[in-house]
Amino acid sequence: MEMDRNGFEVLPREECFDLLRSVPVGRIGLSMSALPVVLPVNFAVDGDRLVVRTAAGSKLDAALAGAVVAFEADHYDVDTGAAWSVLVRGSAAVLSSVDDVDLNLDSWVADQSDQWVMITTDLVSGRRTAGRVRSAVPAGCS
Asked: CA–CA separation, 109 vs 54, rounded Å?
């Protein structure tokens, strides 16, 4: 098992994909109007890519077209302190056809959300901790 310099387990690529499949919501980081934005999105893993469903013409759709993005999903168990985080970096593109998309992904948007955006998984990294991380409290603080 590989550990990073902070004592977190470094996860292999395939385990990162397994963890991504276990949660329905992640956060996508991108540039919108030349400013950084992080937005929660529901997503699915389709083979070696991530797929997000959005409304055609939405700001997210416009911002994602051809952009290099970061995508992060995680989980934290409040009882045990066990946690994991997976970070994906890749390019986003609108799918011209969803015939080859093999997933069931509902949209949060009430209107016709018929635009599918694919995110490549060029760089995938993940970390996990098994339990509580003890934080040091500076003297005089409580």
From this structure: 7
